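Exercise 3.2. Students should predict the tertiary structure of the chain below and write it as structure tokens, then compare their answer with the key that follows.

Predict this chain's 3D structure.
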Amino acid sequence: MTCWTKEELENMLEDVVNELDLSDGMIDEHGPLGTPPAVLVRLVLEQKDKQIAMLKAGFVDVTHNSI
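Answer key:
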């Protein structure tokens, strides 16, 4: 079994949260609350599922500019 230090685990956790690409609104809402990372991951995955369902239904994603 591999053992990590507390600092290494905190860095890994920070890397995961950074990869979530949280919107400013999510950061404003969840940052001060200290929302657990597992909850943030679940919220992001739920949002992505909604986006995928909307795209499959024919909606256009205008939230990300490709320009």
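Discussion points: The CA atoms of residues 42 and 48 lie 10 Å apart. DSSP finds three helices and no strands in the chain.
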